[in-house]
Design a protein that fits this description.
Structural class: alpha+beta
Strand content: 25-35%
Number of helices: 5
Largest sheet: 5 strands, mixed
Helix content: 10-25%
Radius of gyration: 26 Å
Distance between the termini: 64 Å
Amino acid sequence: MTLTSEHAPPPSAKLPVRRGMLIAAILMDSSLCKHGARRTIRLLARALLPIALLWVSACSQGHNMNATTDSPKDEGEPVRKLNPAPKRAYVITMTLKDAPGPFSSVEGIAQYTVENSAECGKRIPMAGAFPRISTSEPFNLTRVSEGEFRGTVYADLVLDEDYFGRGVCRWRFSSVSVHLRATTNDADTRFIPSIDSKAVISSRSASTYFWKGRYPQVADYAGFPEFGDSNLERIPREKLDEFFTITLASVEASP
């Protein structure tokens, strides 16, 4: 890379300049003050844009294996494969207490992540990094009583295989979450309690507290994602009744 502004050496000099040096040169060049702030901003933006693009590429790209097509390996990214006969089953019971109203939309999600993505995944060309590989698999929750739902998840649902031609990807069951909405309207707030895989496998429970004021919708924010709090220690006693509780409890299923 070479400096190309009027303050740089002529092209024949072919002076290589690191991007950090270019930014420093722009900031230290007092003559830019004569040309105004707009020119300085343009030069800085030109220098920083590739860095910003690299950062976005590294942070935002990931392999969501259940969002792909079943293309052959040489035509595109393969889809994750599900175990046709999973055995490690856990029953998830969700209990609502003091809910502000009904929830017509209840969707269970089991999350799985590849634990050796650097060994088996695809490298991002620009960033030179390996993105996280994950998949979100839905599971059914059935209402068993007023304020209580039940469903089953499997720790061994996704198969370990060579998905990218670089070695076997090892999948790890990571968490369970539930998305609840007052209705099927996408504008409704999504209340999202969760429980990690360690708690699921050890047959424990996790309670999440949600403010009732965000039910059924948040003004000027369609589909607001509300993850709640794990405790109400900072809430004054007189305001505790403004919250409701969603508890996810796990029990290993009988063979």
